[in-house]
Amino acid sequence: MNYYLLVYAVYLLVSVLLTIWVARTLFTNGRTFLIDIFHGNEALADSVNKLLLTGFYLINIGYATLYLRSQDDIHSYQQTVETLSIKLGTIILILGAMHFFNLYVFYKLRSRAKAEARTLDYVLDK
To answer: Keywords for this entry (predicted)?
Structure first.
């Protein structure tokens, strides 16, 4: 049996499905933050959200594809599982890092938007 094909098939399937799940979660829940950042402008928030989603897909699926190649010797089911765990673990860590990066960007954008709103309120009060 060709264990490499098994590793490639399972790895690609799980990587793409995980990427889609994380991306959809970020897309759905990030909308609220973007609307707040853009002061209620839903059209702009939705547009930016779609652009972020596209970039997330491109980066993560691109990396998963680049990481597909295996140089390990795979001659048993045990080696198949071990290779898959390393590959999938790496992708999961990268997806987690991308998730926290997106949260950080949302936090910084939201903080900036709130600071701008406070400055504007201060100017308008004078």
So the answer is: Membrane, Transmembrane, Transmembrane helix
Q: Which of 11, 13, 103, 12 is CA-nearest to residue 56?
A: 103
Q: List Cβ neighbours of 12 (8 Å cut-off, separation of 6 or more).
A: 64, 65, 68
The two three-digit tokens of residue 12, written as one number: 């690609």
Query: pLDDT per residue over 36-74, tens digit each?
Result: 888 899 999 999 999 989 988 998 899 888 888 877 788
How is the chain split into domains, by residue range? 3-125
Give the pLDDT mean for 73-99. 89
Neighbours of 43 (CB within 10 A): 8
Q: For the residues of the chain, what is the DSSP string, one character each? A: --HHHHHHHHHHHHHHHHHHHHHHHHHHHHHHHHHHHTTT-HHHHHHHHHHHHHHHHHHHHHHHHHTT---S---SHHHHHHHHHHHHHHHHHHHHHHHHHHHHHHHHHHHHHHHHHHHHHHHHH-
